[in-house]
Amino acid sequence: MFTVLRRFSILFTMIAEVIFLKGRPSVKVQLSVYGMIIGSIVAASGDLGFDAVGYFFLLINDVFTAANGVATKKLLNSKELGEYGLLYYNSLFVLVPLLTFVVMSGQFEKALSFQRWSEWGFIVGFFLSCFMGFIINYTIVMCTMYNSALTTTVIGALKNILTVYIGMGIGGDYLFSWINFLGLNISVVASLFYSYVVFFETEAKKAVRQLTTVA
Description:
Strand content: under 5%
Shape: globular
Radius of gyration: 21 Å
Low-confidence stretches: none
Largest sheet: none
Helix content: over 70%
Mean pLDDT: 87
Distance between the termini: 53 Å
Structural class: mainly alpha
């Protein structure tokens, strides 16, 4: 059920783009989004449970995911901050709340008393993890800037599906069922169809702009 509700972040992002960015997704884009959601529903149909608190927090997460993507695109379109400025201020504004949470939850003391701060292997791994966190945030911003908030959300969902495919062969904890497998494949096909549609729509827009410039 987690998979089903997380896919609604794609739908929420599409709706938010229409409301706040005045976007108009084509019928093919809409069909691909609906296909991803239907696929996730099919995949989870054998594991439907009800947890009101869990559903609430998942849907809130979806809303914030959509809001983050649309706000990022809107700020990038304004040309006031740029990708580096956006990353900088995003990190700056979250610093105080994050430090407050870390101190109040006792995580700061646990970090100070951690036994491996003197080990080079841990230090290298720690800073590599921090660096890769920056790379992930940077690529998300760049993807949103050159494409759309909806495309970034769809890629995130497709990445999760690919992780499941890899887990089927490596993890050993995947419980195979034909319904779940069918739903996953529906989501993958819908995601690939979305990529196909967006690519050719983008190329068509470029061609129109070039013709307009020549004229």
